[in-house]
Amino acid sequence: MFVYQTSGTCSRQIIFEVDEENKLHHVKFIGGCSGNLQGIGKLVEGRTLDEVASLVTGIKCRNNTSCPDQLSKAIAAYKKSLEDTKK
Q: 19 with 74: CB under 8 angstroms?
């Protein structure tokens, strides 16, 4: 399980799991608009990290970001954490 602290959105955290094929599972947002964020979680379930990041990067709501955009940042942070582990 990976936990990401969001910035500039109503949601405070994004929690997700990644399988051995780099696919997202069990995406949950803590805080924010519950229905919309549950919908995002369902829509990205089973998609690859790269596919999801390319779909949601740059979506704006307030503060020049959004919950979907924060998900792309969470994916980038997850990938960076993997690289840092390999060092």
A: no
